[in-house]
Amino acid sequence: MPSEEQKALDRELKLNQVYLAIISRYKDVIEEREHLSVAELPTLVKPKDERILRKAEEIKSSFGIFSYKQNFYEASIDAFYFVRNNIADAAMPVQFWLAPEETMSFGIGDLLDRNVLLCSLLIALGNPSTKVLVVIRDGGRKVLTYYEFEGKAYSFDLLDLSHGFKSHESREEMIRRLGLVEEDTAYEFNDNTYQDIA
Questions:
Q1: Where are the domains of the chain?
Q2: Residue 196: pLDDT band by 50, 70, 90 thresholds?
């Protein structure tokens, strides 16, 4: 006879299957209401959200007296590891935008959701140059978050489990390293701007 804990797990599994069936049935309706043009993507980045600001303050507090010039780079690495280690990557059955505070609350999001959260945190830590960069190539998508700091560019790749962050001599060098070709679509955005790159 199954334990009460096993019964609860079985019930939760069945409930999740019902939710997935409902979502799949109404996928077109959900995606129609969730549609954002790429130019509207800046509305997803929310560095002034209360939960994002609290997390940024928590990261800053680990430095004692936080100095942007002296501590921002290290704080950006902490933010990267927070997102990489605490927010699970998941492919959603429908195209559904999560706000950064929702991604934090649920502890899960797709690659774009996780990068939007990281971008929001880095801006909240004091760097307004931070952007999410998206490259679409051959039906696949590469998403990075990057910022400029003291004359260099720093990029974060949440899917790179070996290291995940790189230093570049400049934003232009970082974009060159992406090896963009004519068929690629590439754009970047943050809470204030959207720009096509290719």
A1: 42-196
A2: very high
